[in-house]
């Protein structure tokens, strides 16, 4: 094997290596070799090639870094009072978005930038190596553009969520026109994705369709907040428009589940992989809003692709902890640890079309052609590793709430 002189790292002392690669599976007493920013070798420790530097992890589990495909990190303000009221029995309502919007508009650029940076650091410290984040707390042309610009300085995938809430005092139809026109034009250069909150109290299916169609025409990939607060048309719309993901999915009919399970079928090339609409479940949000848990077990059993994400935001899910989300998926949603880890790594990568299959299928919006795939530990993938202070991944659920992230590599650099 030809390794770059000075650039290769050999990592040993791995009791369990969860590759999330169908062929490699989970290995024991394993090693990984990184060259520069990518993984170049994975296998039994005894057969590992020599490298310039060696790290012995001393008997720990290694997983792909978490791919958190749904966050709202660009915000200021506090909604702990709203949370406390909810714990006392108040239902969640979309109107709280307006409270965060007022605080976010009032924040200086430098403050907002520092807040996003600190949330990204917090996520990294919890094993997250790839993040999506959204606008949606600006809701004017200038404030949405500012949010997208700040987000783009910190994460690789930025989503335009101008259609998060109709700002108080504005007519919904006029606002949708603004989102589809000047707001989209101002934000699109900074964003890869567009999203819409398709829900009673936010945007109707017809308004959502208009927004998503305009955004697709501007070259953005599509995502939908759907079926969070009640049954609705979000899932059907997402599948119909070929969205990469529909997120929340708390209230699904059998028809919604079937639509997700067969989404992407019939794509050119005859493979669904990289064309599906992923069902992204948000376990921390479900707990924090006392919502019925999204039916992740049923979705997987039906053949749908599932992602797990944090949905970090001040209203419904104020955590960046993917460890917590994965533990909850195992403890409460009935997923095995392998299923939960896959959903929080490869599932997230597929939901952002940054996995190997989507890159090969050409379905990633605004792809540059030089992006390495993420979500698995296998040669050719970006060297994004999450080392647990535990011998096996099951400890994430077995020891819930414990600080189990021991080390993190992103693109070959050890960050922790
Ligand atoms: N549901 C819509 N948007 C966010 C919550 C926004 C808020 O309440 O601030 C979510 O994904 O849960
Ligand atoms: Zn969200």
Automatic annotation (TrEMBL):
Binds 1 zinc or iron ion per subunit. Gene3D superfamilies: Metal-dependent hydrolases (3.20.20.140), Urease, subunit C, domain 1 (2.30.40.10). It catalyses: 4-imidazolone-5-propanoate + H2O = N-formimidoyl-L-glutamate. Keywords: Cytoplasm, Histidine metabolism, Hydrolase, Iron, Metal-binding, Zinc. Pathway: Amino-acid degradation; L-histidine degradation into L-glutamate; N-formimidoyl-L-glutamate from L-histidine: step 3/3. 4-imidazolone-5-propanoate binds at residues 79, 137, 164, 228, 316. Residues 62-363 form the Amidohydrolase-related domain. It holds the Pfam family Amidohydro_1. It is an enzyme of class 3 (hydrolase). It is found in: Cytoplasm. The keyword Hydrolase applies. Its EC number is 3.5.2.7. Its cofactor is Zn(2+); Fe(3+). Its main location: cytoplasm. Signal peptide: none annotated. Fe(3+) binds at residues 70, 72, 225, 311. SUPFAM superfamilies: Composite domain of metallo-dependent hydrolases (SSF51338), Metallo-dependent hydrolases (SSF51556). Coiled coil: none annotated. Zn(2+) binds at residues 70, 72, 225, 311. Belongs to the metallo-dependent hydrolases superfamily. HutI family. Catalyzes the hydrolytic cleavage of the carbon-nitrogen bond in imidazolone-5-propanoate to yield N-formimidoyl-L-glutamate. It is the third step in the universal histidine degradation pathway. This is Imidazolonepropionase. It comes from Kocuria oceani. The lineage of its organism: Bacteria, Bacillati, Actinomycetota, Actinomycetes, Micrococcales.
């Amino acid at each position: 094997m030809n390794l770059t002189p000075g650039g290769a790292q050999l990592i040993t002392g791995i009791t369990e290596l969860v590759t999330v690669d169908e062929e490699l599976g989970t290995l024991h007493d394993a090693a990984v070799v990184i060259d520069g920013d990518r993984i170049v070798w994975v296998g039994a420790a005894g057969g590992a090639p020599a490298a310039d530097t060696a790290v012995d992890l001393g008997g720990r589990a290694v997983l792909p870094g978490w791919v958190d495909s749904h966050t709202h990190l660009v915000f200021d303000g506090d909604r702990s009072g709203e949370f406390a009221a909810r714990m006392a029995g108040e239902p969640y309502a979309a109107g709280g978005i307006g409270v965060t919007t007022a605080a976010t508009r009032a924040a200086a650029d430098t403050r907002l930038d520092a807040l996003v940076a600190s949330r990204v650091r917090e996520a990294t410290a919890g094993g997250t190596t790839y993040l999506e984040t959204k606008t949606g707390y600006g809701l004017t042309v200038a404030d949405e553009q500012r949010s997208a610009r700040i987000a783009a300085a910190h994460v690789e995938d930025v989503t335009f969520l101008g259609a998060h809430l109709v700002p108080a005092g504005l007519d919904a139809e006029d606002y949708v026109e603004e989102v589809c026109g000047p707001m989209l034009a101002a934000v699109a250069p900074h964003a890869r994705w567009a999203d819409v909150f398709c829900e009673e109290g936010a945007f109707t299916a017809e308004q959502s369709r208009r927004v998503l169609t305009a955004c697709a025409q501007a070259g953005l990939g599509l995502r939908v907040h759907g079926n969070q607060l009640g049954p609705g048309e979000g899932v059907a719309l997402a599948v119909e428009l070929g969205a990469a993901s529909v997120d929340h999915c708390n209230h699904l009919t059998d028809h919604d589940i079937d639509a997700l399970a067969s989404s992407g079928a019939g794509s050119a090339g005859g493979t669904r992989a990289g064309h599906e609409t992923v069902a992204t479940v948000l376990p921390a949000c479900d707990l924090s809003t006392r919502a019925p848990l999204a039916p992740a077990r049923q979705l997987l059993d039906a053949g749908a692709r599932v992602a797990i994400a944090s949905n970090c935001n001040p209203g419904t899910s104020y955590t960046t902890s993917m460890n917590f989300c994965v533990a909850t998926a195992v403890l409460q949603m009935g997923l095995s640890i392998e299923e939960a880890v896959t959903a929080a790594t490869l599932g997230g990568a597929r939901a952002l079309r940054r996995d190997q299959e989507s890159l090969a299928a050409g379905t990633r919006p605004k792809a540059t052609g030089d992006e390495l795939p993420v979500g698995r530990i296998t040669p050719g993938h970006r060297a994004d590793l999450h080392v647990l202070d535990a011998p096996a991944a099951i400890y994430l659920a077995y020891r819930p709430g414990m600080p189990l992230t021991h080390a993190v590599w992103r693109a070959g650099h050890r960050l922790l």
